[in-house]
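Re: folding output
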Amino acid sequence: MDIVLITAPVSRPCEPPAGLAKLSGILKDHGVEHLVIDANLECLLHLITSGEPLHAQDTWTRRSARHVEKNLRSLRDGTAFGNMGAYIKAVTELNRILEVRSKSHGVHVSLNNFTHMRRSPVKSADLLHAAEHPEDNVFYPYFLKRLQALLEEHAPGYLGFSLNYLSQVLTTFAMIGQAKILSPGTKILLGGGLVTSWMRGPMKTNTFAGLVDEIVDGPGEDRLLSLFRGETPSRISLPEYGGFQTRDYLSPGSIIPLSTSTGCYWGRCSFCPEKSENTRYCPVPGGAVVSLVRHVLKKHSPALVHFCDNALSPSIIASLAREELPSPWYGFAKIIPELADPDLCSSLKRSGCVMLQLGLESGDQGVLDKLGKGIRLETAAHVLKSLTRAGIATYVYILFGTPEDCVGAQKTLDFVSRHQEAIDFLNVSIFNLPRYSHDAANLTTFDFSEGDLSLYQGFVHPAGWDRNRVRQFLDKEFKRQRSIARIVRQDPPFFTSNHAPLFAKR
């Protein structure tokens, strides 16, 4: 076996990891012998279904333990999606099991997060500690046996770990440390979106030399093929999902993640991490996108397609609108004038589009202009209306705490409230300032984390609109508006936008 590709917990266990599926397809096309392991799914299911009995716990925990199989089944067969009440019961009871079983290890594990009470995922010393003491990790009983069997049966030359989220960091390093104990000669590769951000920001070189043999900066396909075949990708490869246990994910039917590009076609937003990291926009050639999608759908017949692009480009949206795909789909789209066209929206609906994620960010035109969003509020209003009339759900993203003032926040509240009937789901977040942003030159900044791998920093807001004031505004004003509170309650807990289109379809 040339290489085993692994992704560690915790991320939402609802679909295969898109990055590994893409790498698997390329390696398969070029004859590289490999396996893919979604240790995130495996570890979470093990913690939910195995472990110490919970009979002595409180009533809620005992009830949750009795309902484990029923709740897993209801998420997989779709009955939990019949109404939000049934869904909330299923996911909160499963989450309760994770919380209780992880608490004794000094960590908080949920269906979408991993928080250590003493260790930080942005302190390199804590990452090395996790590797030196893998037995302290809550998932250790599972991944010890999994790695032992894997190394004995397949004897891979390399283990490649894909690291994309902070919630995966400590367990990824615990697994790397355990792999080094079991097989010191097996080489370790470390890549993924978070690792790329580290390499283009605080890390620069391999901080973990001696533990990690090589860190891959950027998309991994070029490096892997160079390593194993001495070549670069010669053609477009279909992502490969056959190595994943798609029936075990917590979603009804298989959800297939698919990307038609890397980077962002717009690339002009202020404070964008990808801009500060100089991430290039690399799309699949226009004529090949529909062919790629059709081949994937024909081979896998998914229940839902998740386009993972930062934003589907106008040309790809137009291409998809001309098709009638056999599976429903959703993804991110920039708010562009074309989406205000009712005919285009109707065509997108016929093509299978059930939901679009839209980064509105603010209801203040001045703020949008300063952020370089290229969005006109009147256009946004028409887009929301046209999508809603076509039967396409809207998942709208709002961002507070950028260099905007209280007036801007109030305008955002007013915009959302005025267009409540055209907003199905709402994601509300507080701005984090990228540490290496070129747009922060005129801001007074400070460290709010002691971690040497932190990608963000604090700043003194020009109008005094700091994080505490933003939180107070959100809790006491924004989310207490009746029309807005109704939208916020519709967001599926833990899985949010990943499960929202499954409700939109109904």
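--- second protein (sequence, then structure) ---
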Amino acid sequence: MRASILLLLCLTALSQTPSSLIADELAIDLQNAEASKDWIFLTSPFVYVCKDAGAGGYEAFPDVCRLSDGRLMCAFYAGYGHVALPNDQLPNGGRIAYCMSSDEGQTWSAAATLYDGPDDDRDPSIVQLKSGRLICNFFSLRKGADGQSYEGLGSWMITSDDLGKTWSVPQQITRTHYCSSPIRELSNGRLILGLYTENAKNSQGSVVFSDDGGKTWQPEVLIDNGGVQLDAETDIVELKDGTLYAAQRPHMSFATSKDHGTTWTVSKAMGFAGHCPYFLRTQDNVILLAFRLPNTSLRFSRDECQTWSENVVIDDVIGAYPSMANLNDGSVLVVYYEEGQGSSIRARRFRVTAKGIEWQSENADKGL
């Protein structure tokens, strides 16, 4: 079992961490996973969002968004493996695909291509702004001259003003920082995106923001890691008082900002490990934090991120990169991926009650 877990972690880290820090990080991940009292396995009812998007049978890194017409859109990476560089069978490499649901995530349309550039385009996130504009942000890897290596090209965005029927040409957000979370629209209209960057000596979370609806982006703002390597994904939630709260992988640290992301406090440990954090505020003002490790998990806070619940396992697959959306009946949909050959996108539905998380399983075994 240890070997299988380590292999999955290795596969996931290869594409999401463009530097040489993988080995040390994996050792920490495995140690934390085995030490956790919440490291349990279960068989979970779920629906499939997509089993095969037609790009090689590997689907990963999903993000779900509620559209203004009521439908749900799930965007995700599609390729032939965890890193799908261009080859004879897939000349443009991995691409961004999507599926739609008109019944609150019970069933999903066949996959279609959202964007397919000349490089390996991956880890998409999608948001609809108050203006109605859709923004899909992602990052890209370019195939090296040796045909095996790759270089990161930074983070990009495309926009749609017709609910995803057509999309703009790509616009670069940042050349040296990478995204794994959606753009968040703040109460004052600012757009902010959690990022990460790393080099041989240091790694940390960062943010970038726009005050003109995404037309231009200000220089990246680094979040002081307090001397701890925080080498990957960052997500942000706005608290009721306007404070921004950022969670960062892999030791799950947090930092706050009182000026809409212009400056940040030094990161502090949250007390549990996790990868690819994703925030959602429910209709009842409970803040959810979904992540990977152990497996696919979440925690929740009823006091604006002051304290967090015990770990709740969503599923026993360790791919994760979860995303969530509020449903019309007050429940929550969470989407995530499996990891491994033939990885698919899964979804589950739950409610947050006075007692905790209540899983909704009547839709098990549906989906395409």
